[in-house]
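Something for you to look into today, if you have time. Could you write out one complete protein record for me, on any chain you like? Leave the record below and I will have a look.
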Amino acid sequence: MSYTLNVNGTPQTVDVDGDTPLLWVLRDTLDLKGSKFGCGMGLCGACTVHINGKAARSCITPVATVGSAQVTTIEGVGATSVGKQVQDAWLRVDVMQCGYCQAGQIMAASALLAKTPRPTDQDIDDAMSGNICRCCTYTRIRAAIKQAAGIPTTDTREA
């Protein structure tokens, strides 16, 4: 079946089964490889994208449910001011180690800051819960989120 998706501000028509996960449409049909397959059950966060500005797990989102929603991927999030701030902070803090989960981490962090520009530690914990980093860069992730939000930190573990 044919679906027209709005991905990163551009209408994209794809011919796939309606139950095809959005992740595979993005990666295999639209050649947007930034969102990663991790668990296939929406548990790890590697596949996180924004659907109408909210973080969503693309591995468990059937393409038929997307409709006319605005889908933003890691390839497009830097076009938003919040996404750009988060990406820049990620580089300044040197968050990445292996990098596999980082697209999902950045997407979750961008959704958080778009909704809550000055998040508390609890806000960060809640928003980032379920985004797994096997390299355990969690303190650098928190530091980058705070830096992107303009929140000073005195915790040397978050520098």
Notes: The two ends are 49 Å apart (CA to CA). DSSP finds six helices and five strands in the chain. The longest strand covers residues 2-7. The mean pLDDT is 95.
